[in-house]
Description:
- The protein is α/β, with parallel strands linked by helices.
- The protein has helices spanning 7-13, 20-34, 48-52, 89-101, 114-117, 143-157, 167-171, 204-214; strands at residues 39-40, 60-64, 121-125, 130-131, 162-166, 183-187.
- Strand 5 (162-166), helix 7 and strand 6 (183-187) form a beta-alpha-beta unit.
- It is globular, with a radius of gyration of 17 Å.
- The mean pLDDT is 96.
Amino acid sequence: MPLNLDKSWQNHLEPEFNKAYMKALKTFLLQEKREGHEVFPEQHDLFSALNHTPFDQVKVVILGQDPYHGPGQAHGLSFSVKKGVTVPPSLKNIYKELNTDIEGFKTPDHGNLTQWADQGVLLLNATLTVRARTAGSHQKKGWELFTDKIITELSEKRKGLIFILWGAYAQKKIALIDTAKHTVIGGPHPSPLSAYKGFFGSKPFSKTNAQLIKEGKTPINWQIS
């Protein structure tokens, strides 16, 4: 069990770290380093999504696929980059949608979404690591089993959560979610390839807040400072 994993998540995920797939994943990651490959995010950021959003504080899940694979970008939160790093195209489109969806939203000058995570938005990638400059390089190595378990635990042990699933890959995760207990907001991915096919104008952020209010929860302040 990683020492830097939030205790609330340890209670739900501890058995996973003793399973064969996780041991094989650890072996793979060690091999990547032995071969001199740079892996993102840095180790201390590996579980940032879980550490910023404890299990009992999750209100919303925004599912991504892979960490960014450029130097200095990934820091463990889906769609987010560190301050000082150029805002990626998908996040630029997320900001564009926020401009039209949330009254008074002002586009920030950075792409760090930690403020969302600290309010209960679990910014979870399906795969938690990637080899530098090689998109998708750590897919199907075991991370998906681990993050599927996260989604399943949230679906089974919590109620009234909102899952935002953009794009075909994320929407396959509906199979893990009890839609009688939780709300799913789907739609096209915000990437430049698909944002104009229905992402723009879909209003996922105001829909999320309306549902949170309906559930008796505090809405998310989507403004990033």
